[in-house]
Design a protein that fits this description.
The protein is of the alpha/beta class. The chain folds into 2 domains: 9-107, 60s Ribosomal Protein L30, Chain: A; 111-266, 3-Layer(aba) Sandwich (Alpha/beta knot). 36% of the residues lie in helices and 20% in strands. Helix 4 links the parallel strand 2 (53-58) and strand 3. The longest helix has 14 residues, at 133-146.
Length: 267
């Protein structure tokens, strides 16, 4: 990748490293509408999904993937600003035990819910809060595997671009539609498009595998310890439960959501 061509836009490394460090904080992510993603898998997935790259970073010495190196060259030729980093510099901002040599500052892609039209057979997931960001990332992977159309984030508590979410999703976040809405906006959207909202709760009236999930479906999931909030419950047409032996701890968001999604997929 040596030898720069006309039209390429190299930028100084230190300011880029400082911005990446700032993007570890949610306040800066919210203000800038950007986030940082590292690793070959995430880089390839981001480009494949059409995610807009604000700044590319890579290490000539660390990056060994032929496909990733090809995409780096293409991204540079497209005029995207880039910083060439030393192995020490890229490790400085890496959250992985072994830095793979490539990362990117990317534009967030959260959409307003009223502008989205659900497909007749679609399935959506609605969340208000999550306890551990990594569990949300795991749920995103299951959502991708089962063909979920997207996530509706109720209120502003959830940050889908938390580094722990992005890392745990293993690239799946780039293929998911993300929408943020107030509870009133979600209620109107559900009514307009006739979604069937199913909530998961220990006090559900029927086991999750004994229900007919009418499409389009919105699966409402609560925070692991607190469960569904009162406002979430008010939006549900039906509550289902995951049967568990007495004395068992509640399942985390990723596990519980995955069980429900695969049941919905079977239908």
């Amino acid at each position: 990748m040596a030898g720069e061509l006309n039209g390429q836009r190299p930028v100084p490394a230190i300011p880029v490293l400082n911005r990446i460090a700032c993007l570890q904080q949610r306040s800066y992510r919210d203000q800038s509408h950007l986030f940082y993603s590292e690793g070959v898998r995430n880089f390839i997935a981001a480009l494949d999904s059409g995610c807009e790259v604000e700044t590319l970073v890579y290490s000539e010495r660390l990056l060994t993937s032929p496909l990733a190196r090809k995409l780096v060259r293409q991204t540079k030729r497209a005029g995207v600003p880039f910083a060439t980093l030393s192995p020490e510099q890229i490790r400085q901002v890496s959250l992985s035990e072994r830095a793979s040599g490539v990362g990117a500052i990317l534009h967030q892609a959260i959409r307003p819910l009223p502008g989205l039209t659900p497909r007749p057979k679609s399935c959506w997931i609605a969340l208000e809060d999550v306890r551990l960001p990594g569990n949300f990332g795991t749920l995103i992977r299951s959502a991708s595997a089962t063909g979920v159309d997207g996530f509706v984030l109720l209120g502003d508590r959830i940050d889908p671009y938390d580094p722990a979410v992005v890392r745990a999703s293993m690239g799946a976040i780039f293929g998911q539609r993300l929408a943020r809405a107030t509870f009133d906006e979600f209620r109107r959207w559900v009514r307009q498009h006739k979604l069937h909202v199913v909530g998961a709760s220990p006090d559900g009236t029927v086991d999750y595998d004994r229900v007919e999930y009418r499409r389009p479906t919105a699966l409402m999931l609560g925070e692991e310890r607190k469960g569904l909030s009162a406002r979430q419950r008010s939006l549900c047409h039906q509550l289902v439960r995951i049967p568990m032996r007495p004395g068992s701890d509640s399942l985390n968001l990723g596990v519980a959501g995955s069980l429900l999604l695969y049941q919905i997929l079977r239908e």
